[in-house]
Design a protein that fits this description.
This protein has one helix at residues 7-13; strands at 16-18, 23-30, 34-36, 39-46, 49-52, 57-69, 72-74, 77-85, 90-92, 95-102, 107-109, 112-115, 119-122. By secondary structure, the protein is mainly beta. The protein has one domain (7-122). Strand 12 (112-115) and strand 13 (119-122) form a beta hairpin.
């Protein structure tokens, strides 16, 4: 689902879109792709994929097949297959995934567990170094 410059395709095929001006509280369970550009508080679980936009603020545990994170999340993330963390992402919570990519500039405070064929475990506080100015 996730490839560069493919945002319009993600939006077109998403089952649920929480727009930039929307604030939502609740527990979401679904089977389709979900795009969050606004604010979500509660929990989010889907059998498909999740895209969190740069200006999105999520205060929830997130579970999906694949996830692309560019905004702020306060909560745990579980991506069964693949997790892409963009340079503008700020995550406060534990992360569990099959595969991961983290762009320079992203911030993660929590535990990361990558469990593909060889499980890697990184404990304690992890923060990437921001790009030198």
């Amino acid at each position: 689902m996730f490839s560069k410059d493919n945002k319009l395709e993600r939006l077109k095929d998403a089952e649920t879109i929480i727009g930039a001006s929307i604030r939502v509280k609740g527990n979401f369970n679904g089977k389709g792709d979900i795009v969050i550009e606004g604010f979500l508080e509660g929990s989010l679980k889907t059998e498909a994929n999740v895209f969190i936009g740069e200006k999105a603020r999520v205060n929830a545990n997130v579970e999906a097949n694949e996830a692309l994170i560019n905004g702020e999340i306060s909560g745990n993330i579980k991506a069964r297959r693949y997790l892409a963390i963009g340079k503008t992402a700020k995550i406060a919570g534990d992360v569990q995934c099959g595969e991961i990519s983290i762009e320079r500039g992203a911030s993660i405070t929590g535990q990361i567990i990558v469990s593909a064929s060889d499980a890697k475990r990184v404990d304690k506080k992890i923060e990437t170094v921001e790009e030198a100015e």
